[in-house]
Write a structure and sequence with these properties.
It contains 25 helices and eight strands. The protein is of the alpha/beta class. α16 (404-448) crosses α17 (462-483).
């Protein structure tokens, strides 16, 4: 046995057959692992999502869909880690290009920030828009922690305000409330990012001049012999000094008030006021506080010389009462009302739980009480996590049988592996991503080409078009990473599949569920050559029989005739292509397929129970 190891360690293998950490915490020879474990399917999904979020226009709401709460937490942790990794890589790349180093509002940078806040106006230049470095501000909001309060949505807004104030400091935000201004766009290609506030400087110098003159007149009236008896001169001097001094004092008091009373306390005070909560301007006050935060973040982008993104991770929403769930969606709508808000919402929920909650509240008026329709309108980037892959399942089993010390060792070993061999792994991802950029441009060209038949299937609703545009990059990245570039389907086919899943989620889910059930019940049957349209035709009668329990899901689909033209003529996907696409389909709610599978199983049980049983089976003959 090797020194420092144990007998059971020699037989312990990690996922994929590679050496894994000792289940008893022993480190073997004491050296770091020479080979990194291959990424799991969940790693690939989360990395592709994190890469896409670095390029997606904000504000955006990501529907992070998975049925298991524990798996949602682990996947969110992976996404956060990959986004931090991407942030560090972009920062290093910007420095290598010779760009100026970013700065922060702490230490000496705090004095610089206060000086710029008071006397300069930020300008968004062409050079600022070309900056690639990003800073993500991660904010975790557990709805369960605020489930007991009357206004859960206020908890989301106050959590946002508290974390932004904590991240940048109370003093810069307080000064911005009084003296700050939102950046304006440059009129040309000038690289000048700060313009002196001429009006502010003139007012300040004027007040100081009046104050100095007033104090001078007052001193002359009080000290110079022969003028002491002039009462009018004393009045003029004291009035000039008091007026100018009071103006300066009011500004200082306003800053002090905003320093002592945070945005969180202001919103809590508004929500606790019964006489104000019933007034019409209540939400406008809340929105005003949010707009100040958005303007402050835009100012800090120019000051820090990088783009800022606030990532709000909303969890445990499916543990709250229906009214609370609807309140959180209303708060998200308030925060998303500003088109320039740098917010990324990661809504980690199980749609099969959230949809019934939404349907029990009064927020569904005008949507025929369809929770799926409401969820689709709120989410601009759906990301449905597929079933757990083989490597992910093995990794979870390995984690389950390890102790707390083993898991801590795994974290340490993983950090060492990143510092020693992270460059090679990162190069592989960068190579795949560079190839993905060309595929994404080709897919977008097909959508934009009026002569391409795919463009006639795009929805009229702009929100649905944005969902399609946001989903295509993730789908193509997943295809490239899973296939390694060999035998991959074309970008046009991938874009068509995304459009299919967005326009007809019910019919596509039904077809895929029938294909899966056929493969499970008849494993010897070869359906690879069959088209999806033929599979749908074979099972459309059963779908019609289940139209009552699936009515709300069916209402999500577009024109049935267009669905037939899409699958039967323009894009005749085969069963094999459908299986390949299913593993990378993130804009299709997989809970719909689970519901269909349950309904099909119950229907078969009902038919089996209603079938007559032969007499020989009921009364077997005695020997």
């Amino acid at each position: 046995m090797s020194p420092g190891g144990c007998e059971e360690c020699e037989a312990w293998l990690g996922p994929g057959g590679g050496p894994g950490p000792c289940p008893h915490g022993a480190t073997g020879t004491g050296a770091a692992p020479e080979h990194q474990e291959p990424p799991t399917e969940d790693d690939v999904y989360c990395r592709c999502l994190s890469r896409t979020l670095c390029h997606t226009a904000t504000p955006v709401t990501v529907g992070f869909y998975a049925p298991c709460g524990h798996r949602l937490e682990s996947l969110l942790a992976k996404v956060t880690a990959f986004m931090r990794e991407e942030m560090a890589q972009r920062e290093a790349a910007e420095l290598l290009r010779g760009h100026r180093k970013p700065r922060s509002p702490h230490g000496w940078g705090l004095l610089v920030a206060l000086w710029l806040l008071a006397f300069y106006e930020p300008v968004v230049t062409e050079g600022h828009l070309r900056r690639k470095n990003l800073e993500f501000i991660f904010i975790r909001f557990s709805a369960w922690e605020f489930a007991g309060c009357d206004k859960l949505w206020a908890g989301l807004v106050t959590t946002l305000c508290h974390h932004i104030r904590q991240h940048f400091g109370a003093l810069p935000l307080s000064v911005f409330h009084v003296l700050g201004s939102r950046p304006r766009f440059a009129s040309g290609f000038s690289q000048r990012e700060w313009i002196l506030k001429t009006g502010t400087c003139l007012r300040l110098w004027g007040l100081l001049l009046v104050l100095a003159v007033g104090i001078g007149i007052l001193l002359v009236a009080l000290l110079v012999p022969g003028i002491k008896d002039h009462h009018a001169l004393k009045v003029v001097g004291s009035a000039a000094a008091s007026l100018s001094g009071s103006s300066l004092l009011l500004g200082a008091l306003s800053i002090l008030k905003n320093f002592l009373v945070s945005e969180k306390k202001k919103i809590e005070r508004l929500t606790n006021s019964d006489r104000f909560a019933g007034q019409l301007g209540f939400m406008s006050k809340i929105r005003g506080e949010v707009e100040v935060l958005v303007d402050f973040l835009a100012f800090m982008e120019v000051f820090e010389r990088r783009r800022l993104r606030v990532v709000l991770e909303i969890t445990s929403l499916d543990l709250c009462y229906p009214e609370k769930v609807a309140g959180v969606f209303n708060a998200m709508a308030t925060l998303l009302s500003d088109a320039n808000a740098p917010f990324i919402f990661l809504l980690a929920v199980d749609p099969s739980v959230i949809v019934p909650c939404l349907e029990q509240t009064g927020c569904m008026k005008g949507l025929a009480d369809n929770g799926y329709e409401y969820l689709n309108r709120a989410v601009s980037l759906p990301f449905s996590i597929p079933e757990t892959g083989a490597r992910s399942r093995l990794r979870s089993v390995e984690a389950a049988i390890q102790t707390r010390e083993d898991l801590m060792y795994r974290i340490i070993a993983g950090n060492v592996a990143k510092t020693r061999g992270g460059a090679g792994a990162g190069a592989g991802w960068r190579e795949a991503d560079s190839e993905a950029v060309a595929w994404i441009h080709e897919a977008f060209r097909c959508l934009h080409d009026g002569s391409d038949v795919l463009s006639r299937y795009l929805p009229d609703n702009g929100a649905n078009v944005r969902r399609i545009v946001n989903t295509i990059p993730i789908t193509l990245r997943l295809l490239l990473h899973r296939s390694g570039g060999a035998g991959i389907l074309s970008p046009r086919a991938a874009a068509a599949w995304v459009v299919l899943a967005d326009r007809w989620p019910c019919r596509l889910s039904w077809t895929l569920q029938c294909l899966e059930d056929t493969g499970q019940s008849l494993p010897t049957a070869d359906s690879s050559g069959k088209s999806l349209w033929s599979i749908f035709q074979e099972n459309v009668g059963e779908l019609s029989a289940l139209r009552q329990p699936l009515g709300k899901v069916l209402s999500l689909d577009g024109d049935p005739e267009l669905f037939q033209a899409f699958l039967a003529h323009d894009f005749p996907f085969s069963a094999d292509e459908a299986r390949e696409f299913l593993a990378v389909t993130v804009n299709l709610d997989h809970s719909i397929r689970r519901q269909m599978g349950l309904l099909r199983g119950l229907d078969r049980l009902r038919k089996a129970a209603a079938a007559p049983v032969s007499r020989g089976v009921q009364c077997p003959s005695s020997q």
